[in-house]
Amino acid sequence: MSIFIMDTHIDIPWEEKTADGLPSWHKRDQADCAQRDVERRFTVPKAKAGGLGAACLAAYTPQAGLDEAGHAAAWRRAQAMLEAIEDMVPHYLEGEAALCHTAAHIRQAAQNGEVALIPVMENGYPIGEDDSRIGWLAQRYGVRYMTLTHNGHNLLADSAVVREGPEEAHGGLSSLGRRVIQQMNRHGMLVDVSHASRKTMMQAVELSEVPVFASHSCVRALCDHPRNLDDGQLDVLKASGGLIQITAMGAFLKRGGGGTAADFAKHVLYVIRRIGVEHVGLSSDFDGGGGIEGWQDAGETHQLIQTLQEHGLDDSEIRAVAGENMLTLLEKAEERMTKSQT
To answer: Over the stretch 96-129, which tens digit does the pLDDT of each residue have?
Structure first.
């Protein structure tokens, strides 16, 4: 069986912060994305070896101060990372991968035997106070989704994980966050609720005209972690047409960590039984902490698919979970964008 597999959250290696504690914008060479025998968990040769057809590469910005200096550094970092992603194909991967901004382009890359690389954003912190930056990210860089938060509240919304400061800053979404979601809908950028607080997530579902999704989260009923979605959140995803992309992070899969591909499959099966196969997909969080026994790097992606088959998923279910659900969601965002332009 030929299966299109899409991993919806992979980080690119990058220095975390400067000596001053600001998000680092200094570029890291990405030449190792074209190599097989390197420490990096995702590379295009590894993806091809594992049967992985598409990867969402995240420009991740760590949370720092909610001031002018922090926002300026974050904005500079986000653009530098997106430019590094954009440079991968012409510099290192010509004929092996394709930078893709639409579902159709992703499908075409798969037909051409190329790995589709999709630029995305992790953390809305770089937006600062300027919601017009959403349009720039979408039009200049082709960003297809953005997580509203990371670990810590920003000006857009409250986070699920707070390392310092109050438990809540906005009671969910701020007024700026609501405007940002409207801009994301307008520009074909999916709203990612991974890392967001429960209130933020529920409000985002209610506000967004396009179904929201969690790009790298797991099921709270199976592992009680604040980054995971509870049954009520799963039910809301179903009602809205959204997705949860189960992720290969041991701490989210199993209490105490140490999760395996079998644990991963249990989370997938739980979502299927609770809300349906059309609402679940796959993500690794490779090079951002992800990697479990049975799916340690992109080269082992075929082993994860085999584990899902061993847990009873049939061919149509595998296709849906492996990538078709996410492509359908991207197409919905594109349809909404087209309507806003006519």
So the answer is: 999 999 999 999 999 999 999 999 999 999 999 9
Token representation of residue 274: 């609770």
Which residue ranges make up each domain of the chain?
6-340
DSSP line for 103-117: HHHHHHHHHTTPEEE
Instruction: Say what the pLDDT of residue 138 is.
Output: 98
- If DSSP codes are grouped into helix, strand and coil, which group holds residue 190? strand
Measured CA to CA, the distance from residue 342 to residue 332 in angstroms comes to 16
Distance CA 61, CA 280 (A): 26
- Cα–Cα distance, 179 to 195 (Å, whole number): 19
Pairing of strands 280-283, 243-247: parallel
Q: Give residue 13's pLDDT.
A: 96
Strand, helix or coil for residue 166 = coil
CATH 3.20.20.140 at 6-340, yes or no? yes
Q: How far is CA 262 from CA 119, 180, 267, in A?
A: 29, 38, 9
> 3-state class of 23 per DSSP?
strand
**299: CB partners within 8 A, 6+ apart:** 36, 46, 47, 49, 50
Count CA atoms closer than 13 A to 69's CA, side-chain side. 7
Other C-beta atoms lying within 10 Å of the C-beta of residue 77? 28
CA-wise closest residue to 53 among 120, 6, 89, 100? 6
d(CA 83, CA 29): 11
3-state secondary structure 44-68: HHHHHHHCCCEEEEEEECCCCCCCH
Indicate the DSSP class of residue 24.
P
- For the beta carbon of residue 251, count every other beta carbon within 10 angstroms: 16
Closest by CA to 10, choosing from 297, 228, 281, is 297
